[in-house]
Amino acid sequence: MSEIVLIDDDRSVLEGLHEAVAARLSGVSVATWQPDSNDDVADEFKERVDDGETVLVATDYDLTGRGLRGFFGATIVSWCQQLTIPVGDFSRRSPQLLPRETDLFELRIPPNDEGGADYIAAVYRGFTDLADAISALDLDLGTTSLAKYLARVVHRPHLESDFALYMARLGHGGTAVARRIISSQSVISTDKRSPEATISYTLGHYLANVITRFAGPLLGLDALCAYVGAGHVERAVLAEMFEEARYEGPFSELDQLFWRESVDAVLEAYFDLVADPVDDIGTFRRAAIEAALGSSLEPHQCDRNGCSGTRGGFHCPFTNRPVCVLSDCSVAGSAWIPSGATSSRVEREYHDEWAPLLGQ
Fold first, then answer.
1. End-to-end alpha-carbon separation of the chain, Å?
2. Lowest mean pLDDT: which of 116-130, 253-267, 310-324?
């Protein structure tokens, strides 16, 4: 039976999270582990997690509460990464202990029972759906790139090159990536993981941590608002208007997601309704929607250059705000944005605040 392993040193917290996760995933084994000073934690980890059945691990950051000095969730994360088992961490005591940004192969879980359980269930189903879809593909592991796998899984083979741009950091060719992960030096064996499982592991993290976060071929609901120069209060209106563009593939439970090319197809039918010339693409899309609705959209919050919250076209994933092409509004070509995220830009104020600290 597929298994989720929950790890925390607080019994009441562990039981509450277990109950919430089990209620959302009937038929899935949800195991718990409360490490204490009597454990040989490496052996306990192998026994509980390295069983060939574990699909997902969720761990608290601070695991020292029962006498294990220096034992933190970062160790669990590292061990799971060596095994190519998806792992998420959280902190109820001090969220500031967690790094501001996760790495590619680390998931960040909301630190409460309901939000955390929703996220764990969504990620579990995302990885299992992705693994099933990959297993059903008739592709040559020796020649097929990760981007091709992903494009076939989501039934958009023509977007292979778009997805490949997101994966440029891992080089060309999914097989090389898979072999590198499988053959990585580790004190923990990876023999129980198949090549297909490793491909699923890699693509799942790209979907969960990168592609669904940095707007490009896929737009999250807030990114959709930014794309058409509208405020977040218009989420419900826009979700209904672009229902036919909705993404329903693996990890679709993480957000309301929409195919940008399908959004453009809907918008194209409204472009002829725009009577007055508009010099900004976000404003033009906004005007087309307003013409189709016969009413005005609420503006987003922006007072730059007399914008009045009507310009847009791009989404800043760091501030979650609409931005436009004006140089005092956003920065293009930042190394902080994956190459494939062509609907994302960094908000100027955020960039100028953090760039000196990051050596940019």
1. 47
2. 310-324
Top pLDDT among 153 and 332 is at 153
SS3 155: coil
| 32 sits in which H/E element | strand 29-33
- What lies within 8 Å, CB to CB, of 243 at 6+ separation is none
Structure-token pair, residue 237: 């209106």
Confidence of residue 125 (pLDDT cuts 50, 70, 90): very high
Digit-coded pLDDT (tens) for 69-94:
667 888 888 888 888 899 998 887 65
Task: Give the C-alpha separation, 339 to 228, whole Å.
Answer: 21
d(CA 118, CA 115): 5
- Looking at residue 145, its pLDDT comes to 83
Q: Which two three-digit tokens encode residue 141?
A: 């592991």
Indicate whether 188 pLDDT > 50: no
Q: Is the pLDDT of residue 43 over 70?
A: yes
List of E strands, 61-184: 87-90, 107-108
Element (DSSP H or E) covering residue 5: strand 3-7
How many of the other CB atoms lie within 10 Å of CB of 43?
9
Contact 171, 188 (CB under 8 A): no
Residue 145: both structure tokens together: 């790139």
CA distances from 355 to 24, 214, 320, 346 (A): 41, 19, 18, 11
Residue 119 has pLDDT above 90, yes or no: yes
Which pair of structure tokens corresponds to residue 195? 């090549």
What would the pLDDT profile of 175-185 be if each residue is shown by its tens digit?
A: 444 444 444 43
Residue 262 parent element (H or E): helix 260-268
- Looking at residue 6, what DSSP letter applies? E
Residue in the structure block whose two tokens are 């959302």: 24
Which residues is 184 bridged to in the sheet? none
The Cα 59–Cα 54 span in angstroms is 14
Residue 321, both tokens: 């705000």
Q: How long is the chain?
A: 360
